[in-house]
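Summary for the funding panel

The consortium committed to producing paired sequence-structure records for every protein in the target list. Below we show the first two records in order, beginning with the earlier of the two.
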Amino acid sequence: GYGDSPPAETVATAQGRVAFLDHVLQELGMQRPVLISPSMSGRFALPFLLAQGDQLAGFVPIAPVGTKDYTAEQYQQVQTPTLILYGDHDARLGPQALQSLRHLPRHRVLVVPDAGHACYLDKPEDFHQALLGFLHQLK
């Protein structure tokens, strides 16, 4: 809903969103998945990463929202390998997210050239190449 979905009480809090995402991953039978989080999904992925990041094999935030909701100290506790991605034409949310996410100890940054906020749509080949490189590194 691009942020316009009707409110749901079960995901009104960060704890509720963590529980919801945990339930989805359990229902899908996923063990140590890589969580890819573009834009608005940051409201779900970031609290999950901070609360249960040890359950993830990796994390790929793509200019997610909500990064300023957490402190540098909270990010520094996370040991999940992370690939921070954003497009070089994303002058607002990408660099803003990087200011917080750079505190993750096990991170790399990749800026997709000639791409905007939705770099995975603007430059899908570059995006997928970066993603596959990160996934191969995790093995």
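The next record, for a separate protein in the list, is shown here:
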Amino acid sequence: SKVKSENRKTIWNIEEVPEGSEFDDTWDPREQPEYEILFKQCVGTEDVFFGMSGKDPSTACCEDIVIKIKLPETKYSDITLDIQDTVLDLRTPKKKLLLHLPYPVNSKDGRARFLSEEEVLEVTLRVSRKFEFINFA
């Protein structure tokens, strides 16, 4: 069967292009900032003392991803942040970060805050898992 394209001059379909490839611009001379990826999970006393929920300290049981990006000599107003389900794209006048995330996230449900004293942007994203009932049953 033949796939019909909206534009006859295109050489591939939109489904064939991987998510985040539109951000790949290796020609950009801006340097990549230092960053750190942390994983966060919500635990209660039943988890800590009794292990009743079946959670373990692995990243498979974490609910959130926290990304801390060091941005020295940067103002909050200079930061451009775009988050897709598997890609974080950060741009400032001096720095650029294209980060493929370790897990898919809910791109509509996230928080970012700029800690001006530490010159760090902290981005918190909710991990999106397809089979949540299996992971945390």
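Regarding this second record: The mean pLDDT is 81. The two ends are 42 Å apart (CA to CA).
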